[in-house]
Amino acid sequence: MQRREFVGLTSIGLGALAVGGRWIPPEGGPAPTGGLASRAAARGILYGSLIRIGVADKDPAYARLYADECGVVVPGTSLFWPKTRPTPETFDFSDSDRIYQFASAHGIKMRGHTLVWYKQLPDWFAGRVTAANAESVLRTHITTLVTHFKGKMHSWDVVNEVLDDKSSRPDGLGASAWLDFLGPDYIKIAFQAAHDADPQALLVYNENHMDYDTPQWDRKRELVLNLLHRLKSEGVPVGALGIQAHLNAAETHFTPGKYRGFLKDVASLGLKVVISELDARDNQIDGSLGTRDAAVASAYSEYLATALDEPAVTAVLTWGLSDKDTWLEKIHHRKDGQPLRPLPFDDQLQRKPAYEAVGRAFDAAPSR
Ligand code: XIL
């Protein structure tokens, strides 16, 4: 693989000349080749990761890892409402533009996350958005963001986590200010606004909790398929299902045949599938680091062997590259107080068994 001129995230961020610095790996050897993105691309699959301003741009070695390992990046929070819309009247793309500049400097695609979610609403939202103006607020937001990145985004998560398997509603829609203000049609409104702003963009419905063989997640998968059927029958321009795939390395209820059938049902609707936020938490795995890392690697292997068997699965993103910036630390804790190790690289940017598990899954996947 041709050695790339490395253009750091910081140099772009400073607005200085994008000073290309030929990257010398820590060990001084040749630049790594055949990273995860290359192994995935060999099968027609796009691989990448979440990327965070404030993390990747503060660590040139980490930014280099993105350049070597990723074919796509998704901002972790830089496209959330509080960042992009600090007031109802103003928009801020400073962080997301820096990520886009870094990505495009390295031939890396970018995907957007997320235009509509019941979480991460800005502080001004409650006092300013009403049933009367909610549609206008939503349309303005979506139109502004999608237009800003028109022609630049691999895909957009248009709506995120809209179903709740504990919902009392027959359609399973979860609690959301958008549902309160606009009813179930908020989903259709969102997709239509995004499509109108960029008719070429791949528009994704992103969802969680679909992976395991339990009655609760059986219902979730059923609700997801019902929603996708309804959206497609109403001509809503949804192009893909985003499966977050936040795995639990201690979970034993994964039934490949059942999951394969679910993916087939999604694909039968003419939809692509993006594995959008893959990680494997090890907070419930006792034992040595080696034992924990082996369990995480096994979770990736088992899951991806099934998921990648479905040709409609065309992209896989891990929710971070290195354990040092996993979101899971905020919500899961180990009894021994040790940090979690859910991602392909450890907090020193060293490859873990999970790295090779992901790489081998790509190597073994049928070509698209
Ligand atoms: C998380 C981010 O990684 C955190 O940094 C942030 O504080 C909260 O959101 N499902 C999603 C993601 O769709 O947006 C969430 O990401 C993780 C769960």
Kindly describe this structure.
There is one protein chain. This protein is α/β, with parallel strands linked by helices. The chain starts with a strand and ends with a helix. Helix 11 packs across helix 12 and helix 12 packs parallel to helix 13. The longest helix is centred in the middle third of the chain and has 19 residues. It is globular. The chain is built from 13 helices and 11 strands. It has an 8-stranded parallel barrel, surrounded by 5 helices. The chain has a two-stranded antiparallel ribbon with strand order 1-2. Strand 9, helix 11 and strand 10 form a beta-alpha-beta unit.
List the helices and strands and how they pair.
Blueprint: E1 5-7, H1 9-13, E2 20-22, H2 36-41, E3 46-51, H3 60-69, E4 72-75, H4 81-84, H5 94-105, E5 109-117, H6 125-128, H7 134-148, E6 155-160, H8 177-182, H9 186-197, E7 202-207, H10 215-233, E8 240-243, E9 246-248, H11 256-267, E10 272-281, H12 289-307, E11 313-318, H13 353-364
Parallel strand pairs: 3-4, 3-11, 4-5, 5-6, 6-7, 7-8, 8-10, 9-10, 10-11
Antiparallel strand pairs: 1-2
Helix pairs in contact: 7-9, 11-12, 12-13
